[in-house]
Structure formats: structure tokens, C-alpha cells
Amino acid sequence: MSVMKILTFPDPRLRTVAAPVEKFDKSLKKLTDDMLETMYSENGIGLAATQVNVHKRVIVMDISEERNEPRVFINPEFEIKSNKSLYTFSEGCLSVPGFNEEITRPDQIILKWQNLDGDNLEDEPEGLLTVCIQHEIDHLEGKLMVDYLSTLKRDRIRNKLNKRI
């Protein structure tokens, strides 16, 4: 396994829409292993392939307190079950390092994805998993958490991150 370079906002490659995974082979397993290693090395709880400049619909995640329950989502998608139930959470992002922002998202979704063998799965996640999966799917669509903020706030974050380079 190896640690991959994480792209940071405002890198335009973060705006690339990821393509569906069609081949479920050893290279996909290696990608997810490397992504997990990268996520753990940066103390993240989720990572989308787009963030490491691989534009495939792949997400890795581990929201367990012990950091020992890695999950892999291939070709994930979700439907909003109810727009009436919203959840506001202070989200951080490995591609927007050093910033946490309050983001409101639907709290009830139906999640569909494939595992590393290509099997189709479905779940109705709750709590942090619901927030995290929506955040990571946004990455696959070329969307970032800063897109939920005002233009002024987004520009301030962009300027601060540009000064770090």
C-alpha cells in the first residue's frame, strides 16, 4: 500500500466528474487499499477517488471510533428519502485542509453501491454515515463542501489555501 497525494481546493481537477467503475479487478482493490492508507495517514474518515486524481466512482470510509472498520463503496448513488428531515454537521475535508463548516444535508437517504466483487448493495444509513457518504459522492460529482458556502466565505478559504502553496 502507498500514500497518495491529495488534491486541495482550488485545484480544478477536483471539479472532474468521475466515471463509473466497470472492471472489478486487482487494480481496483489496490486503488482502494492505497486510498484507505492515504485516508488513515491524514486522519480522515472518508476519501473519494477524485481527491487523489483518480476519476472513478470509488469511495473509502471508516467512521468507527477504533478506526478499524474500513468500508468501500463502488459506483455509489443515493436517493433522498425525505426532504423534511435535515441534519447540520460541522464538516471537514481533506481537500480543504484546516477548515470546518456547518453544512445541512438530508438525513434520510437510500444508498446503493457495489462492493469490490461487483455485487449490488443497498442500505438506509443513519447519522454520520449519511453525512459522510453525501459529502464523498459530491466529490465524485465535482462538487466540494465550499460550494455550500457563500461566495465571500468560499473566496476567503481559497485565498488562505492559495497562500499556503
Set down the secondary structure blueprint.
Layout: H1 26-41, E1 46-48, E2 58-61, E3 71-92, E4 100-114, E5 120-123, H2 127-140, H3 151-164
Antiparallel strand pairs: 1-2, 2-3, 3-4, 4-5
Overview of this protein structure:
The structure is a single chain. The chain has 165 residues and is of the alpha+beta class. The protein has helices spanning 26-41, 127-140, 151-164, and strands spanning 46-48, 58-61, 71-92, 100-114, 120-123. Strands 1-2-3-4-5 form a 5-stranded antiparallel sheet. The radius of gyration is 15 Å and the shape is globular.
Descriptive labels:
165 residues; alpha+beta; five-stranded antiparallel β-sheet; 5 strands; 29% strand
Kindly summarize this structure in a few lines.
With 165 residues, this protein is α+β, with helices and mostly antiparallel strands. The protein has three helices and five strands. The chain has a five-stranded antiparallel sheet.
Given as residue ranges, the uncertain stretches (5+ residues, pLDDT < 50) are none
The SS-based structural class is: alpha+beta
Main pleated-sheet profile: 5 strands, antiparallel
Strand order of the largest sheet: 1-2-3-4-5
Radius of gyration: 15 Å
Mean pLDDT reading: 95
Classify the helix fraction into a percent range.
25-40%
- What is the global morphology? globular
Please count the beta strands (DSSP E, at least 2 residues each).
5
Distance between the termini: 27 Å
H-E string: HEEEEEHH
Number of helices: 3
